[in-house]
Amino acid sequence: MIQSSELIDTLQGLKPIKDLIGTKPWVWGWKDGKPFPAQASRVIRTRGNVQLIRVSFWYKGGPHGIQTKHVDVTPDHCFLTEFGWVEAQKLEPSCRLTRVRLSRDRGRWLIIPGKGKERGLASRYITECLSGPLQEGEIVHHADGDVTNDNPTNLSRMDSSLHVSTHLRKTGWLSHPRPTQRLVWDHSTVTEEKVRELYKAGMSMRDLAKVFSVSANRIICFMHQHEIPVRSRGKAISLGQSKRWNAKVAWVKPLVKAHDVFHMRVPETECFSANSVIVQACL
Predict the structure, then answer these.
(1) Model confidence, pTM
(2) Is residue 78 domain-shared with residue 125, that is, in the same domain?
(3) Which domain holds residue 223?
(4) Which phi and psi (to 5°) does residue 19 adopt?
(5) 230 and 268, same structural domain?
(6) Are residue 159 and residue 140 in the same domain, yes or no?
(7) Residue 105: CA count within 13 A, CB half-sphere
(8) How many domains does the chain have?
(9) Which residue of 78, 132, 135, 267 is most buried, as measured by CB atoms within 10 A?
(10) pLDDT in tens, the chain (283 residues)
């Protein structure tokens, strides 16, 4: 059982477990060695004034350096580690916890462990997990237009050409065409020092292009001019998995104050992601 304010990785983003009472949220679980979307059957408050322990962990978070998080649970609550399920009170420092790795920016990406080049949009991954592979020319459409809302009820398969025209109608571009503006690249936004810093952090050339809001070809030319090795997305993902895939336990300490505790039941996976690490669901 976990503390009321702990953040749960739902398919609509991070939400405190206390806000999910009375609902059946879709959450990230773990199945067959991979992240798996599953629907919780219930979320309830079990009891109050319970002594908890805090499991603090860290991982290397790309250009932002080392990130530290924690999960407050009852001592007997289990975490998924490299050696299987282990109770929180038995976790040792440097023990590796299994982590669901998602980007939090627009159009969320998901990293799948075990395959260096397997990186894709979470919405596509969810759709294929629940209803099979997409056919050639198919794309996943968000009904409400919010690309961070990956709830299966908000996702639908759609032909790519129909998908484009649907969004053009919503924005009014089909009825009110606008003149195309030429994009001018501002060289002052890209500096050798910043590029080298982000490169050392493990970014690919495409990631760098997004950071500086320029095309990948511009970044490649810039890197060649300054003799910076070009790194593909596949190599960056492999590097990122070896460095940042699992989280390491920093310490386990009891909390001074007692708290209310909640539990969630997820029949499909019997586990869920709390603050990005996999914990066991209550049966």
Answers:
(1) 0.70
(2) no
(3) 188-244
(4) -80, -5
(5) no
(6) yes
(7) 4
(8) 3
(9) 78
(10) 888 888 999 988 889 999 999 899 999 999 888 889 999 999 998 888 899 999 999 876 654 556 788 999 999 999 999 889 999 999 998 888 988 877 655 456 676 654 444 556 788 889 889 988 888 888 888 888 777 788 899 898 888 777 667 766 665 544 444 444 444 444 556 778 888 777 776 677 777 887 777 777 888 888 888 888 877 766 665 555 444 446 889 899 999 888 989 989 999 999 999 988 999 987 5
